[in-house]
Write a structure and sequence with these properties.
The complex is a heterodimer of chains A (432) and B (302). In chain A, a hairpin with a 2-residue loop joins strand 11 (355-363) and strand 12. In chain A, helix 4 (87-120) packs antiparallel against helix 5, helix 5 packs antiparallel against helix 6 and helix 10 (299-308) packs antiparallel against helix 11 (312-336). Chain A has helices at 37-41, 49-52, 61-78, 87-120, 129-147, 167-189, 193-197, 211-221, 289-295, 299-308, 312-336, 387-391, 402-407, 413-422, 427-431; strands at 2-6, 13-20, 23-30, 156-157, 160-161, 233-236, 246-249, 252-254, 261-265, 276-280, 355-363, 366-375, 378-385. Chain A has 432 residues and is α+β, with helices and mostly antiparallel strands. Chain B is an alpha/beta fold and 302 residues long. Chain B is 25% helix and 12% strand. Chain B contains eleven helices and eleven strands. The longest helix of chain B is centred in the C-terminal third of the chain and has 13 residues, at 273-285. The chains are: A alpha+beta (432), B alpha/beta (302). At the A-B interface, helix 2, helix 4, helix 5 and strand 5 of A face helix 1, helix 2, strand 4 and helix 11 of B.
Amino acid sequence: MTKQLIDQIEGEASIRFDMKENMVDFATIAFPHFRGMEAILEGKPALDALVVTPRVCGICGHAHLMASVRAMESAYADANEPVQLTAKADTIREVTLVLEMIQNHFKWIYLVIMPELAKLRPEKIALTPLKGAYAASLASKALASFAGQWPHSSYMLPGGVSCDPTHLERIKAQSLVDELISFFEKECAGTALDDFLAFDSCHDFNALESDIGEIERALTAAGMHKKGFAYDRFMVLGEHRFTNPAKVMQTRLLQADEKHVKTHSAYSPSEKTFAKNACYKDEFYECGPLSRAMASNVELIKSMHRRFKDSAYSRVMARIFETARLLDHARDMLGSLALNEDSLIPPKPITGISGCGVGVVEAPRGPLIHRVEIEEGIIKSYEIVTPTQWNIGSSVKENPTPAQLAMMGNVTMEEALFIFRTFDVCSVCTTH
Amino acid sequence: MHCASDRDRPTLIWLQGVTCNGNTHSFLNLPYLPQLLAKYDLLYHPLLPASSTLSEVVQCKRPCDVLVFEGAYDPLMKRHEVLLSELLDYYGMRAGHIIGVGSCASFGGMFKASAPQRNSGLIFDESESSGPLLALKNKVINLSGCPVHPEWLGYTLSMIADNKEIKVDTLHRPLELYSHLVHHGCTRNEYFEWKVDAKAFGLKEGCLFYLQGCRAPMTHASCNRILWNDVSSKTRSGTPCFGCTEPDFPRNDLFHTKTNMSIPEDVPLGVPKRSYLTITGIAKAFHIERLEGKLIDDKTAD
């Protein structure tokens, strides 16, 4: 058994590998740190969750904010006091969520995937981490035009958003997104965004003399289109304009409902872990950009999936392609954002609300679920199920999690360490 | 002349205690990040590529001129299987400067609540002097905030690289960053002056101090002077200041102002309560038409 300590994954983890003839036979994963976010929330006034839950995670706090506000609005509905949301508030929430995903993806491409790929293919990859940081900061700036700041904004409240933007803010955000799109075209894709989005086959990447072209070729050269397969079943649960909630079995789309999601303690026989495994009707599903693309019938990704299934290659390229799709989506939403509506329709004070609520959003890594029980405005219980609990977790050999399965079989330890990162691991979310 | 070699540049190690990584991500938004990083020999950072791995750093053999610590201190916590106390002892002793980034490292912050009996900041447990580096407190600079503003860390690291002295307050926060209150530069100041409260969330009109829990008049930070992400701040986006740079963050009931006879229980910093009551009474007697309606009616302007 070989133990590998992993860092630079929003915290740390360890993987214990059982090797057979230099290939990974099985691997268990442990996350050693725990903060007890759910316990911190119990007994607090409900709205304080809008300040506490973004602090679950430094990179996807906005997704937590949105899951939290949706959970509260659902509790209002449970208490027969349904909350109304204007199209304006809904669009502003959506666009800021999308911008957070974009910053996440840029950081992952430049700070995680390129350096990790370089370990497998040192002659191919030029490392430019600050490009990722710069692109991410443009997305965060656009986000902050509405949310006030990033990270850790708390600008969504039951009934809407706290900001009351004018076209000045909208134009500022739009100019930042336009700048980011130009950066993406020149520095990442090496082609116009619209042309990139029109790709319908993996062959289209071949012509790219750019970072994305290099990544695609290095993935193929490293054989990642033939490795890193998980269950080939996918889960999307958040309701958004850029994807559909669905359970995807290979290519069949089926309905999915959050109520079938449960978590179990993770399996880690030789060291303490605070991770949990998220399951749908007791089965593991992969979540994240590849799942979202499969659920919303993105032509290129479906074609990629026909050739390379849910390989490490597909997982990486789906996240890169989602970055482009979300840039386009953010541009459209900002362009059409109408401001002639209220930002927030005040609901009844939450001190008068008793009920249970569920908030589900698609976070950068997949479905994020917040479940809350409120009694006269005070949090009785709070449960958070994060995407990394779906993808990573740790289970027994007979029933591995998606990440464990993807690392098993015909891969070396070095390859397995790369495959692990293709899931975009977030340690702080896993244990929270 | 060659440019400064690695040997001439101060070495920097960034370690983490109990954290969400928010300060790490906030730092990446610094507009002059490449220029700042060029002044340092970055040995370890939780996200940025650096010359050492965490496994090497925890062996306690690396040099360290500047130690940056993010997160609350938990005496039982380990990084790569080495106790934080060992890491802080070793690198704290050797570092010329120690920077606590964020309110967790400064005072315990959000994650003091993870283990309230154990967790603290580096030299403060909330506002009490306590913590693992108390003996080295003269080297410690606290950059409280949840998270730290990138420009505050940029300022501190630039000052250190340039060998300039940083004057600090009693909580070891740089005076240039924490002498102002969040209130300074708030776009709602006119409403504050004339005691006009925001009627609800989601409005650009009205002050958030009277009903919505805003702590800006008693919170030391430059959020409205050095804007977040170069573009905005909490109060500009209609969110109350939660006082996240102060030792008592997070307080309870953050979106609600506790009042006595409809006057906020906590009055602006340094103002005698009785005087505040008097001036409030007088100001409220005015009826200022421009402050009573919408500044712009978006419904007709769109």
